[in-house]
Design a protein that fits this description.
Elements: E1 2-11, E2 14-24, E3 29-33, H1 40-47, E4 55-60, E5 63-64, H2 70-75, E6 78-81, H3 93-100, H4 109-119, H5 121-125, H6 136-148, E7 154-158, H7 166-181, E8 185-189, H8 193-199, E9 202-207, E10 210-216, H9 217-222, H10 224-229
Parallel strand pairs: 3-8, 3-9, 6-7, 7-8
Antiparallel strand pairs: 1-2, 1-4, 4-5, 9-10
Helix pairs in contact: 3-6
């Protein structure tokens, strides 16, 4: 479904991504792991056209989406729940969800909002509440729900567990699995490697802008470098 080919991305003179290539197949959850500054968020922003690569390509179903605008990429079926949530603080929960469907005019918007509320019942309770007054966990639910309102075929999730209590982390990851089972492909950026690999089919490990490791989730869980650097196990 998604094929990232040799993308090179710079911030000024800083070489942020050094020829990244990765694939996400239809129906998969693929985890993208790495430390801060490894290039995980930059990869997602490049796929979403929030950043432009100096070279390389991004293909969706074999067709290049390089050069499209961010809203055109959303229209092709790629939605992005960004790091830090980036919700509209002054709008209500319902208005935020409606913004997620801003490219749509079909009759299924109300149906999809009910789907979001079934995944995140707390959001239905908070529908009229101003989003900026939600808890961190509720804001994360809203960011994911807003992205789902675009009815994406592939969902880019950037650090969904960041800043959340452990019980909320488990809830968010369970919901991510539910979203995948309902037919949405997911590319997941996450520092909580143990949780990410527990739900992913495959994964990649980024180090300073390059792919250092790739393999099935089970293979990465057993790899000594992953166990030492990301799973908190011995050298």
């Amino acid at each position: 479904m998604l094929d990232v080919q040799e993308i090179q991305v710079y911030y000024g003179k800083i070489h942020a991504l050094k020829g990244i290539s990765l694939q996400v197949g239809d129906g998969e959850i693929v985890a993208l792991l790495g430390n801060n500054g490894a290039g995980k968020t930059t990869t997602l922003k490049t796929i979403s056209a929030l950043l432009r690569p100096r070279s390389g390509d991004v293909l969706l179903d074999g067709e290049s989406i390089h050069g499209l605008s961010p809203h055109e990429i959303v229209a092709r079926g790629v939605a992005h729940a960004p790091e830090g949530r980036k919700i509209f603080n002054r709008l209500t929960v319902t208005e935020n969800l409606e913004m997620g469907a801003y490219l749509r005019s079909d009759a299924a918007i109300a149906e999809d909002m009910e789907r979001v509320f079934s995944l995140f019942p707390r959001l239905k309770e908070r529908g009229a509440q101003v989003a900026g007054t939600l808890s961190g966990g509720e804001q994360q639910m809203l960011a994911i729900g807003r992205a789902l309102m675009a009815r994406p075929r592939i969902l880019l999730l950037d650090e969904p567990s960041m800043g959340l209590a452990p019980i909320l982390v488990e809830q968010i990851f369970k919901t991510v699995e539910d979203i995948n089972r309902q037919g949405t492909t997911i590319l997941l950026v996450e520092q909580n490697a143990a949780m990410a690999l527990s739900i992913a089919h495959r994964g990649y490990v980024l180090e300073t802008g390059s792919i250092a490791l790739r393999g099935s989730a089970a293979e990465l869980q057993e790899h000594p470098d992953v166990r030492r650097a990301y799973l908190g196990e011995g050298a």
